[in-house]
Amino acid sequence: MIKGTPELIALRREEIINACEQLYQTMSFKEITLKEIGCAVPFSRTTIYNYFQTKEEIFLALYEREYDRWNGDLTAILEENEGLTAAELADRIAGSLTKREQLLKLLSMNNYDMEANSRPELLRSFKTAFGRSIELMEMLLRKFCTWMSEAERQNVIYIFFPFMFGIYPYTAVTEKQRAAMREAGVDYVYQSIYEITDSCLFRLLGDPS
User: Are residue 81 and residue 25 in the same domain, yes or no?
Assistant: First the structure.
């Protein structure tokens, strides 16, 4: 059992997640180790094990926090607008994901390994945040896309959420990748997070008017 006040426990947990997030700006998932994270926190590396047993658990917590942040964006769209056209809703959601590049980067990783190496209680907490995103998307579609049936709303969700896994790789392209595409003779049009998301959603929403 972790010792300390709830406030201290929450603070230590956030410091560990923040350290992982900071390293993730310049290092890959494979490069980051518990030792690296331990060097970036203001307490001993052994303390980390009181909160997380594997680096996958820390990344899962970072992943959960990113979903929570996006859920805040989706909630704002839901509460701050009385009516939106399909084009306007696609615009708002695309805009919200433009701010969540780190979420999209995490989505592009191997989630199976991350989840497999995390304890059930942490996985359950993560799935709650993920489930809230699906719930909010359903609420947005129900409120603003009144022409859709329940089956059509579910179809949008089951297409769009898997689509999100590929947004980062298609938009965060390195110069090395661009050069390889040119040398391979592939005529590829690069798009931003907003452009690729807005285009997909607008087609999925299919406003009949």
Answer: no
* Tens of pLDDT, residues 34-57: 999 999 998 888 899 999 999 999
Do 11 and 112 fall into the same domain?
no
| Torsion angle of C-alpha atoms 75, 56, 115, 1, degrees rounded to 10 | -90
Question: Cα–Cα distance between 111 and 60 in angstroms, integer?
Answer: 9
State the pTM of this model: 0.91
Chain-centroid distance of CA 209 in Å reads 32
CA angle centred on 53, ends 69 and 8, rounded to 5°? 60
Contact 167, 197 (CB under 8 A): yes
Alpha carbon distance 108, 164 (integer Å): 8
Residue range of the domain that includes 46: 1-51
Residues 127 and 163 in one domain: yes
**Could you tell me if 152 and 87 are in contact, meaning their C-beta atoms sit under 8 angstroms apart?**
no
